[in-house]
């Protein structure tokens, strides 16, 4: 994985991708460019976001992903990737991630 500094407003995938984005916003909107469907990712206490897609280079390495399905998938993970959390005995760590798909009211549910 590579620590990545994004200069674009929107991240698009058109090749093998495995990136770590540091100190990202607490909310991301993922849009399927073909269908227009959207998913909201909300995260708490996860500073980093990983974006991954095997593209044609590696899609054949995954038995549950057809060789021609890679353009229709994206993996977006929230985490403490660039600065892992170390838990000592008796300590705790809390974080959460919420994935929301409700196309009819993702942005305006009033």
From TrEMBL:
InterPro entries: Aldose_1/G6P_1-epimerase, Gal_mutarotase_sf_dom, GH-type_carb-bd. Gene3D superfamilies: 2.70.98.10. GO terms for biological process: galactose metabolic process. One of its GO terms (molecular function) is glucose-6-phosphate 1-epimerase activity. It catalyses: alpha-D-galactose = beta-D-galactose. GO terms for cellular component: cytoplasm. Pathway: Carbohydrate metabolism; galactose metabolism. PANTHER family: APOSPORY-ASSOCIATED PROTEIN C-RELATED (PTHR11122), GLUCOSE-6-PHOSPHATE 1-EPIMERASE (PTHR11122:SF13). Mutarotase that catalyzes the interconversion of beta-D-galactose and alpha-D-galactose during galactose metabolism. Beta-D-galactose is metabolized in the liver into glucose 1-phosphate, the primary metabolic fuel, by the action of four enzymes that constitute the Leloir pathway: GALM, GALK1 (galactokinase), GALT (galactose-1-phosphate uridylyltransferase) and GALE (UDP-galactose-4'-epimerase). Involved in the maintenance of the equilibrium between the beta- and alpha-anomers of galactose, therefore ensuring a sufficient supply of the alpha-anomer for GALK1. This is Galactose mutarotase. The gene is YMR099C_6. SUPFAM superfamilies: Galactose mutarotase-like (SSF74650).
């Amino acid at each position: 994985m590579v620590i990545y500094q994004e200069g674009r407003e929107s991240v698009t995938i058109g090749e093998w991708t495995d990136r770590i984005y540091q100190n990202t916003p607490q909310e991301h909107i993922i849009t399927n460019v073909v269908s227009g469907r959207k998913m909201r990712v909300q995260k708490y206490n996860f500073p980093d976001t990983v974006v991954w897609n095997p593209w044609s280079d590696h899609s054949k390495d995954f038995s549950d992903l057809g060789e021609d399905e890679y353009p229709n998938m994206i993996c977006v993970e929230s985490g403490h990737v660039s600065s892992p959390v170390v838990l000592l005995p008796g300590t705790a760590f809390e974080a959460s991630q919420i994935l929301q798909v409700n196309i009819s009211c993702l942005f305006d549910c009033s």
